[in-house]
Amino acid sequence: MALVAGVDVSTDHYVNGRRLASAVTFEDRSPLDGSLLANVSRGDAATADAAIGAAATAFPSWAALGPADRAVYLRRLADLIDANVERIAAVECVDMAMLHESLRLRVIARGARNFRAYADLAAAYVERAWESNGTRNRVVRMPAGPAVVITPWNAPFMLSTWKCAPALAAGCTVVLKPAEWSPLSCSLLADLAEEAGLPPGVFNVVQGIGEEVGAALVSDPRVRRVSFTGSPATARQIGVAAARNLVPFTAELGGKNPLIVFADADLDAAARKAAGQYDDSGQVCLSGTRLLVEASVRERFLERFHHHTDQHVLGDSRDPETTISPLIHPDHLAHVAGFVERARAAGDEVVRGGRVWREGGLWYEPTLIFPRSNDAEIVQNEVFGPVLTFQTFRDETEAIDLANSTRYGLSGIVYTGSEERANRVGRAVRAGTVWANCFLIRDLTAPFGGIGISGLGREGGDYALDFCSDLKTLQILDGSTT
Ligand code: ADP
Fold this sequence. Notes:
Layout: E1 2-4, E2 7-9, E3 13-15, E4 18-20, E5 25-29, E6 36-41, H1 45-65, H2 67-83, H3 85-95, H4 100-123, E7 129-132, E8 135-143, E9 147-150, H5 156-170, E10 174-177, H6 184-195, E11 203-205, H7 210-219, E12 225-229, H8 232-244, E13 249-252, E14 257-261, H9 267-275, E15 288-294, H10 298-310, H11 330-346, E16 349-352, E17 367-370, H12 377-380, E18 387-393, H13 396-403, E19 411-415, H14 419-428, E20 433-436, E21 455-456, H15 461-467, E22 469-477
Parallel strand pairs: 9-10, 9-12, 10-11, 12-13, 14-15, 14-19, 15-18, 17-18, 19-20
Antiparallel strand pairs: 1-2, 3-4, 5-6, 7-8, 8-22, 13-21, 16-17
The chain binds adenosine-5'-diphosphate (ADP).
Adenosine-5'-diphosphate binds at residues 150-153, 177, 179-180, 210-211, 214-215, 218, 230-231, 234, 237-238.
């Protein structure tokens, strides 16, 4: 147990309805000041075996419950998340350094929404039914089996609930492995699952290092689904492990998302949104990090952009005035700084920022780069920090070509005064989600995922419930029964 931001957090795994400690631990430090928050149990192959075993044993009765009965548990869990928003936000704010205000007002509450949405959706499923060739046909969802959910260090609570909720609602049992850089808020989720009365083994949390316990979990042949959010490199390894057992997996990976601004747009709104891409220190896969602006409004846009970026306040994530908090880890700071140093050395122009904010801290200044060409590394690869590039285009065709010129395809943002153009460009941009004149508005029933190295498969709504199910066609010969 550790006392973190005044909250008692278990540092152990949660397996089969019980806390389980490992003899070996890993250190979890706060990005705010490097202080040691907890020594967390470091799972190994035996931990993975115990957790998957518990999930496999619990599966038949959880699957047999049916969506409406499972929904009762999930709604209870949602209510408990709502009742514990302050505690979860306090812990994640020092563990991951996301802004306390965002956590408290939006991000943690979204965890509750995830469970409620999937409780409702799974229970509302209407089997497709039709007659053909003299048979009555139905499409039946069968719960797939134990699912492994592997989540990243940014927004750990929200992203974990986003993946665990559909799996549990669909009748899968779950083993969740949170990221080792921000493991604590998911430990609280285990407490709440227990309080909500989820039967032992239905929901398990295993802590530890990806290459160790994570790799053991995804290679276990009893696992029937793997749901992953993280980097393309890890996705490839997990994909190979899942393929060995012929297990379907979804992967939500990074982005190098375009934010396209046409001359007919509300330039101030577009520039404000562009400056907003520095929020969470750019540690957001959906961020629009490539600013593509119509050449005729270059100067006007940049003036507004700098104005809005100047309003950012770097500081402690617990302070309501702060808009940019530190990066997650010293290694990640080095990763972000390395991108900018290489860009500078290669001849890209660093227009603002480009350095660590306070020596010894993990803040990196909001950075804008004019790349020397579209092939530059800083344009083509995800930085996952407060670093944006700026390029101009002459017409719609060039804007679309630039937007589609990376291997990624997670999201796109378009600012234009013309709805017709929003529709045209929105369709032409190769990405799983495109927002026009807005950003991050989410309908949980919509499909969500990436193209290219941004991901595989779709989460969201019925897409996630179908992924967590085996779809069966049931055909009964008409008139064959009395
Ligand atoms: P990031 O670059 O965001 O840290 P990673 O892909 O390294 O992303 O990590 C995302 C999640 O994947 C983390 O929970 C991490 O522990 C886990 N992970 C890393 N390597 C593996 C692996 N070989 N097998 C399973 N999980 C892994």
